[in-house]
Amino acid sequence: MPRKAALAAWIGSALEYYDFFIYGTAAALVFNKVFFPASSPATGTLLALATFGVGYLARPVGAFVLGHVGDRLGRKKVLVFTLLLMGATTFLVGCLPTYASIGVLAPILLVVLRLLQGLSAAGEQAGANSMSMEHAPPHRRGYYTSFTLSGTQAGQILATAVFLPIAALPQEQLLTWGWRIPFWCSAVVVVVGFVIRRKIDETPVFEQNRAEVAKLPVAVLFRTHWKDVLRVVAAATIASVSTIFTVYALSYAVNTVGLERGPILWVGVLANVAALLAIPVLAGLSDRIGRKPVFVAGCLACAVLIFPYLWSISGGSYPLIFALGILLFGVAYSAVNGVWPSFYGEMFSAKVRLSGMAIGTQIGFAIAGFAPSVVAAIGSGKDDWLGVAVFTAAVCLLSATAALTARETHDVPTEDLGAAHVRRVKEPASATRGG
């Protein structure tokens, strides 16, 4: 059952985040010209990146709503709903008329659909993480829960890979019909994902506590776990590394430095391939040595590596861009990505776990979602990368500090998670190896 739940979480997250990240790629490459052509190039890019961030505004709202549903009615209902909503809104983005056709109504509709995408994403990871974690053996929670984030990386690979041939189209074709194709492909995503998620069983932990479900889980959450919610919010801002890498750095490389779209997109593909391998390994390591050491090390490594990565883009050195991009996002950030699903989830009891994870992460992710817009405002010139790197490093240090204030929970039995007093169980080394 742990493997089945982990596989379901992996596949569902891959399909869901394919939809979410093709928007980010389109925002970086074409939306400034399609939906904001009346603005200057720099302003158009800033506005396009802001529409990417708008999706994160809806995430805290969706977290409260879908967290309540997940803790009251079950994890499965949330997972099916989020998939259908994400697929429908993404397909409709591909159908939108452009600014040239209907004027200002075009970007308004774009923002509305992006808000609905954000609502969907708010419940996706918290639901999938809760499901895989509550099915996992106590001494391997890190390993099994990390498959949700491996699925997210797979979705990013698929989203970027779909855009590789699209980005190679002549400019006129790219801006008229080419950019729409990845969004229309979401129809397939919806069908496949719906079939898979309908077959998922509800978690044993939720079924066992169904009779004791709180009428208002959010009220219980803020009465008993408000410090953990704040801790997760601060730690989750580390997602700024992801949004800056996948959206800002892509826009900076192509629109500011003038590098070719194709090679820069390949950096994202290869970094995510490396992440697919690194995430379960580093999550398995956290089952042995603890969540905090792995998470904090990842934060600090990201704070250091963002400097040479952005510098390499400013210099146009493709070998350095590839090497540092893979090291930053494929390895260092994977230490964070592999651990946070179990690290955050273990802070909460089963009765409020989905609400706690959803609200904490989505507020943090909302802040991270606007990171590309913030750093674009910090500097829009080729030589302004240093300020962007300093901002990113500061966020990494904030996340590391928040993590250091948390309890170590990798050796706490599942039934004791979120309790004021916990037992600690030492598993045999052979039993704690991921694989």
Characterization of the model:
This protein has helices at residues 2-29, 31-34, 41-73, 75-93, 99-102, 105-135, 141-145, 147-167, 171-176, 181-184, 186-198, 204-208, 217-224, 226-236, 240-257, 261-289, 291-315, 318-345, 353-369, 371-378, 385-404. The chain starts with a helix and ends in a 31-residue tail after the last helix. Helix content is 77%, strand content 0%. The model is unreliable at 428-435 (pLDDT under 50). With 435 residues, the chain is an all-alpha fold. It has 2 domains: 1-199, Up-down Bundle (Growth Hormone, Chain: A), CATH 1.20.1250.20; 217-405, MFS general substrate transporter like domains (Growth Hormone, Chain: A), CATH 1.20.1250.20. Its main location: membrane. May be a proton symporter involved in the uptake of osmolytes such as proline and glycine betaine. One of its GO terms (molecular function) is symporter activity. This is Putative proline/betaine transporter.
CATH architecture of the largest domain: Up-down Bundle
Tell me the total number of β-strands: 0
Structural class: mainly alpha
What's the helix-strand series? HHHHHHHHHHHHHHHHHHHHH
- What spatial form do the alpha-carbon principal axes imply? globular
- How many structurally independent domains? 2
Please report the number of helical segments.
21
Pfam families: MFS_1
Main location: membrane
Protein name: Putative proline/betaine transporter
Keywords: Cell membrane, Membrane, Symport, Transmembrane, Transmembrane helix, Transport
